[in-house]
Design brief:
This protein folds into 2 domains: 221 residues, HUPs (Rossmann fold, 3-Layer(aba) Sandwich), CATH 3.40.50.620; 185 residues, Isoleucyl-tRNA Synthetase, Domain 1 (Orthogonal Bundle), CATH 1.10.730. It is 44% helix and 14% strand. It is built from 13 helices and 14 strands. The strands form 5 sheets. A 4-stranded antiparallel β-sheet has the order 2-1-6-7. The protein has a 3-stranded antiparallel β-sheet with strand order 4-3-5, with no helix packed on it. Strands 13-12-14 form a 3-stranded mixed β-sheet. Helix 9 runs parallel beside helix 11, helix 9 runs antiparallel to helix 12 and helix 10 packs antiparallel against helix 11.
Length: 437
């Protein structure tokens, strides 16, 4: 709160915050100023249903009074025009600097498109105070009946939260300088409907503050995940409660499916039927491959990991494919190419590739003169199992730990393996298929 008050006072002193008498909305029945969730109507930019100050569909801001067909959320009555003096942040004056900031950023395409469209249309100045009894007080004389716009205060709130975190953290020094040095990378996670705040409004506020050298250039967003074709709504009991769902379903499989079907670039739909079908496919294919591998190792090598032998052309081709999938999956966890969906799709393709490879190697087992080639074929599949455990660890930590333990390479706390590694020869394996939840 103290930092927010300092920011408002300083920006007003330097002319970035101005006092203006401007139109607003009011509900005469509820005696309530209408802004944010207090007012509903249609977005002046895209025409979709929207609340005050921002649209969840096109993600652009509004000034409430420009909503089409505005009405009070509480009583449903028609909103009437009001007018009073309040504070505005001069967002429009930061257009050139924001344009340069965007060109240097690593933001995903939807956010770049949103910001560029707003810049092309002309940035609006943003009201940062409203008549209300809830929220932080306005640190300016004459505004005791108003409170600060919560999305404006959030910019300083991020910095304050980092300072609080640093106070009790062993990485205190790194956190304290996170906003003041470009040697740090700040990556923000938020829903696409909050995109304008994070890529337009907050950067402009940091520019106005003047002491934030490290304005975030990286962001990871999601669109909306819908349930059975409609938006989740707790008020209408159109929801799945995670705690109840996880009493019935393994958390690893829930995380796997939510990663796979996540709304990374567009809205997606969750249905229990689709979840159950995908889980059954995964359990079936992963268990089948690992169960067959368990049987092969027990039958041919007494349950122990074989040494590498001689290589065939398709062995080298399989290793190349395995390396490609492994590296693609790990890249999907990096902030510039983040995509949990791609990571689990790589895992799914890895298992599929292993099944194909195993089917093509079966004849080697029964030919004595090819025993060295057979050892290599099995060792490659065990390397693939180790790779699978590595690339799904962030999404399926329980499965990953159990599979690694069965392979004799627990490795908890060790750095992530950046490429597939062979399992140590001679180790007695556990039951690999038992790791699948």
């Amino acid at each position: 709160m103290h930092l927010v008050a300092e920011v408002v006072t300083d920006l007003k002193r330097r002319g970035y915050i101005e006092e203006r008498t401007a139109p607003a909305l009011f509900c005469p029945r509820c005696k309530l100023s209408l802004f944010e969730a207090h007012v509903v109507g249609r977005c002046p930019h895209c025409g979709s249903p929207a609340s005050g100050n921002a649209c969840e569909v096109c993600c652009r801001p509004n000034d409430c009074h420009d909503l089409l067909e505005p009405r009070c959320q509480a009583c449903g009555g028609k909103a009437v025009r009001d007018e009073y003096r309040r504070l505005f942040f001069r967002l429009s004056s930061f257009a050139p600097r924001l344009q340069d900031h965007l060109r240097q950023s690593g933001l995903p395409s939807p956010l770049i498109a949103l910001a560029e469209q707003m810049l092309a249309d002309g940035l609006p100045d943003i009201s940062i105070s409203h008549r209300s009894a809830w929220g932080l007080p306005v640190p300016v004389d004459g505004y005791s009946d108003q409170r600060l716009y919560v999305w404006f205060e959030m910019a300083a709130g991020y910095i304050a939260a980092t300072q609080d975190l640093a106070a009790g953290s062993p990485e205190r020094n790194e956190l304290e300088v996170a906003w003041s040095t470009t040697q740090s990378k700040i990556v923000q996670f938020f829903g696409m409907d909050n995109g304008y705040f994070h890529v337009v409004l907050f950067p402009a506020i940091y520019m106005a503050m003047g002491n934030v050298a490290n304005i975030p250039k990286f962001a990871l967003t999601n669109e909306f995940l819908r349930l059975d074709g409609s938006k989740f709504s707790t008020s209408r009991s159109h929801a799945i409660w995670a705690r109840d769902f996880l009493k019935q379903q393994p958390s690893d499989l829930v995380r796997y499916y939510l990663a796979l079907a996540g709304p990374e670039t567009s809205q997606t739909d969750f249905t229990v039927e689709a979840y159950s079908a995908e889980v059954e496919r995964i359990r079936s294919s992963w268990r089948r491959w690992l169960s067959d591998l368990d049987a092969v190792v027990a039958r041919s090598f007494g349950g122990c990991v074989p040494d590498l032998g001689l290589w065939l052309a398709d062995h080298r081709a399989f290793l190349d494919e395995l390396c490609g999938l492994h590296q693609s999956a790990l890249a999907a966890y990096e902030h510039e190419t983040f995509s949990p969906s791609r990571a689990v799709r790589c895992a799914r393709e890895l298992v599929h590739a292993c099944g194909r490879f195993a089917d093509g190697q079966r004849r080697l087992e029964t030919i004595a003169s090819l025993s060295a080639e057979w050892r290599t074929a099995v060792a490659l599949q065990l390397a693939a199992a180790r790779s699978l455990a590595t690339i799904v660890a962030p999404v399926m930590p329980g499965f990953s730990a159990n599979l690694r333990a069965s392979l004799g390479c627990d490795g908890s706390g060790e750095p992530i393996e950046t490429q597939p590694g062979f399992v140590q020869a001679g180790i007695q394996l556990g039951q690999l298929a038992a790791a699948v939840p």
